[in-house]
Amino acid sequence: MTSAGKPRAAKQFAWDRMLIGGRWVEATGGRTYEIPNPATEEIIGHAPDASREDMRVAIEAARRAFEEGAWRRSTPRDRARVLHAIADAMEARKEEMRELLIAEAGACWVSHDTQVEWPIRHFRTYADLAIRFPFEQMLPAPTIQSPMGSWNNTSMVHNAPVGVCGLIPTWNFPVFVLAQKIGPALATGNTMIVKPSPYGPLVNLWVAKLIEEVADLPPGVINWVTGQGAEIGQELVSNPAVDKISFTGSIVVGRQILAAAVDRLRRVHLELGGKSAHILLDGDNLDMAAPALAAPTFFHSGQGCAMGTRVLVPKAIADEAVEKMAAFVGNRDIVKIGNPSDPSCLMGPVVREERRLAIEAHIESGIRQGAKLVTGGKRPAGLGAGYFLEPTIFADVDNRLKIAQEEIFGPVVTVTPYSDVDEAIRIANDSDYGLAAMITGTDQVKAVEIARQLRTGNVWINAGGNLANAPFGGFKLSGIGREGGVWGMQEFTEVQHIVWRS
Ligand code: NAD
């Protein structure tokens, strides 16, 4: 047993050191902290618990590596080789990665395409982009006519690396989010410090080791600082030696990061929360549509930023739609809840007890404000340990209620009836968030027309998905900037114009 009284899992993932300046070092005083498996509450390992001073050392290492310039001046081909090597190693060792994602992030097999395959795909896309991205472009340059005479110019746009980047990924799809940051940051020649979420250091350190083994990067190009306190993040976002922050997380912390950036006008890229609408257009194929509409109540326990947690349905078929959604998620032969290590489980736990309590507070607020709880709302019986919750659906929800306006980040969906498409668009846009929207229906032309009117960074019609070569990010409070494809590359470059008389 540990000091916290939690039992230990038989297999331990023990990391006493993190990678700073090309060396594996302990946190100040050799401090570590323990990581539970959210499905069993057993301790599965520990990671270094860094101090502010450890973060300063890592920032200095990244600064030094940038100024020395070996990576900054590497060729696109060198960078592509490194990124392909990372993808190849992940592919070869993906069963180890899967094991960690199950044990640390509570990732059920149904989510493994996103958890395991997407990061590999994204590293490969950034390897290709390292070659194809227009780091230097010639522009047409007219002859200058001036009182001093006339002359011809040659004009070039150079996309230079931003410099030292602070990367703060999140824990829900940890390697995927990491790939969206490290991939373009490396492809464009930056140096970086990765500060993983306190909930997910183990898989991050596994990635750190894998990259160290296969990439042959100069020391200090990627530094990893793990820990449970907010002060290491605060140091990273306020230290004057850091040129850019790329953050994925909540609006609350996103605002703090933006505030800390004001002094130095530090570049900030924010991937924040969502409260996405899923608009059902018609009652055709309702049996097929119901599982997709209800997906956020079980898929990764609703812990996704871009899930369609506000379902909007035509009034005439609202009761039928809710009935079919509830029947699907209530069927324990299909939506089996349990330890994600069992491949037959479709739904695992939420990541920590504090998150479960916050989700339960949202559910209580929905009940208090008069929303109709159709199914779920409780902890499932018979599971013993683990931070589990039932798939939860509220019906007849007024979009002004707290449960329809605030991100819950748990297995809860609200269903709101609408009278006509204009009303559906109005309700969908009546949100502080603007990350994504989904549309399900048979009329694709109509769906695309509706998509154009939605104030969100992404719209998925009849499924769709996150594509490695496409932009991903939010309107409004869902963030600033885009990840993915050339847009992700641009986030990690400064645009420089060079013109010379020719
Ligand atoms: P969070 O905002 O709680 O993030 C916490 C991270 O910020 C931790 O690493 C923490 O140590 C650090 N931190 C805390 N205070 C800080 C400060 N003042 N300065 C710098 N760093 C600080 O979010 P979370 O729990 O990690 O993630 C959940 C959120 O992430 C949800 O809102 C979800 O929607 C969002 N998310 C967004 C996307 C996207 O791509 N848009 C993807 C996944 C998750």
pLDDT averaged residue by residue: 97
Question: Given the helix and strand composition, which structural class is it?
Answer: alpha/beta
Low-confidence stretches: none
State the domain count: 2
Q: Please identify the oligomeric state.
A: single chain
Number of strands: 25
Query: Tell me, what is the CATH class of the largest domain?
Result: Alpha Beta
- Architecture of the largest domain, CATH level 2? 3-Layer(aba) Sandwich
Task: Give the strand order of the largest sheet, numbering strands 1, 2, ... along the chain.
Answer: 17-18-19-16-15-21-22
> Roughly how much helix do the residues carry, as a percent range?
25-40%
Count of helical stretches: 15
- The CATH homologous superfamily of the largest domain is called Aldehyde Dehydrogenase, Chain A, domain 1
Radius of gyration: 24 Å
Q: How many angstroms separate the termini?
A: 75 Å
What is the fold-level CATH name, i.e. the topology of the largest domain?
Answer: Aldehyde Dehydrogenase, Chain A, domain 1
Shape: globular
Bound molecules: nicotinamide-adenine-dinucleotide
Largest sheet: 7 strands, mixed
Strand content: 15-25%
